[in-house]
Specification:
The chain has 121 residues and is mainly α. Helix content is 66%, strand content 0%.
Amino acid sequence: MVDFERFRILLESERARKALLLPALREDITSANAARQNSNVDDEHDPEGSTIAFELSQAAALLQQSSATLVQVEAALARIADGSYGYCEICREPIAEGRLEARPWTPYCINHARGKTWTKP
C-alpha cells in the first residue's frame, strides 16, 4: 500500500523548491540578457560573448525543465486529492513504489514511461 501522506509531503517539498528556483532562474535570464544588450559583444568572436550566450541558454533550459516539473508536481498532488495517485494513467495498474520514490510526480508505470504500448487484457 502506497503511503500517500509521505508522497504528498515529498511533492509539496518539491513544489516549494521549484517555487523558489523559478524566480531565481528568471532573474538569471534577465541579467544575462541585460549583459548581452549593454555590451558590444560579438558572440561568435568575443570570448565573453560565448560565456553570456551559454549562461543564457543554460538558464533558459533550467527554467523550462523546472516549469515542466512544477506542472507535473501539481498534477500529482491533484491525483492524490482525487484518489488516482499511484496508478498508471495508461493501463491503470499500480505504479511500483520504487518508481514513485524516484519520480514522485510520475503518472506512468515503468513500462509506459519507457514507451512500451501494451494494453491490459
